[in-house]
Design a protein that fits this description.
two-stranded parallel sheet, 313 residues, 49% helix, alpha/beta
Length: 313
Amino acid sequence: MTLRDDAEGLAYRAAWRMVRRLPERAAYAAFDRVACSMHRRNGRSVQQMRANYALVRPELDAAELDSLVGEGVSSYLRYWCDAFRLPRETPETLDARIRLTGHEAEARAIVERGEPLILFLGHLGNWDHCGAWATNSFAPVTTVAERLKPESVFDAFVEFRESLGMRILPLTGGDNAYPQLREALSRGGFVPLLADRDLTRSGVEVTLCGQRTRAAVGPARLAIETGAALFPLAITYEPIPGRAAHRVVARFGARVQPVAGRSEAEQVQAMTQQCVDDLGETIKARTQDWHMMQRYFSDGPRPGAPGDVRGLP
């Protein structure tokens, strides 16, 4: 670990302590100011968000796209404010700030029968709030987390999430997560996975909002191999009247089933595409809650490279 990593880790922990002690309105106002500054500076991550949004919403002109990007950066910073303030939450306050929609009743019935359940999530809204809520009010969570840098930040996140009752498996740098997920599901476990972005180079090509990308195959493979139920879950925000904080809306898509008469590879492809199609509907409707600041689409331009990145100076 470098001195820079140490400094970043200390700064992160200090911010975590400070933000959770601030009054709600002051905390979210501070993050809104940071979001406005990020949007104005138009750094590389904001440019990449703009490139992704431009491909999802090609009907927007430059001014409309820029406004949407501003909303997207604000939503992204809201997620981080939520994350810093999560230690303040109780089971009651978590429950008050979440609304479930879609095929929620079917998913809940599966959990209540003690059967395994997998959720296919995208980088939408506040999935950490959902995980904390689920562990108290739905089913204990077992999931995989991308290893962050500096290491001390990743360790702090894992330590905190596990203090809420969640089981966190690192994607890299530890034991292979896949057999541990299979074992959890064999005991009727609940496994939500961020899967709209392939981080392993072993994903499958899919189409999201008419654009080619690659998604993780873990949810579909696990569903086929263990018999666990698989649902896509799209998470967005909605305002709460009179509050600076927002409510988390979690929409369960229709259950995704294996297709008889196809090979396992074909089933994985079809099931993953069905999950991505469902998330794509929400990404199109609530683009600002899609926190994708990395290059995502196979044919999408990189910031600073030639291509249709409308609204860039």
